[in-house]
Request: fold
Amino acid sequence: MQIPAKYIFVHLLRGSRHLNSNSFVHWGCWLGCTFGVTVIAYIIASSIPIFDSLVSLIGALLGTVLCFQPYGCMWLYDNWGKGKGASQFWLPMVGFSVFVIIVGTFLTIAGTYGSVVGVLNSYKESGGVGAFSCADNSNST
Reply:
């Protein structure tokens, strides 16, 4: 939620002295932007019955690809040219980096499958009710 709030904040205060100052306008605008984005996100999350499943799907598709696998790839990129003679730890680190990439690929595939199944199950449980409908989205039984 920080990124959209920061985007709005910078565009509102661009060209003014309040953008980089420690003033009441600066802090009021920043708190207003973060509060406003939080309220909008809460309304969207509350009105979409399967939102948690969609967040899981996005995390499964992008989480390991952006946060887990790059470390293995970066280590291999930085150290592949050094070869075996560089250190006694070179070969085990190559193995660990490849392991991280393989495990990340498995987590992406398995997590995506599980999330898609979760989305389908949530949609079936809600009876195919869409977002912003007049149906009861409170999940109360």
Summary: The chain has a mean pLDDT of 85. The chain is about 70% helix and 0% strand. Helices lie at 2-13, 24-47, 51-67, 69-79, 90-125. The longest helix spans residues 90-125.
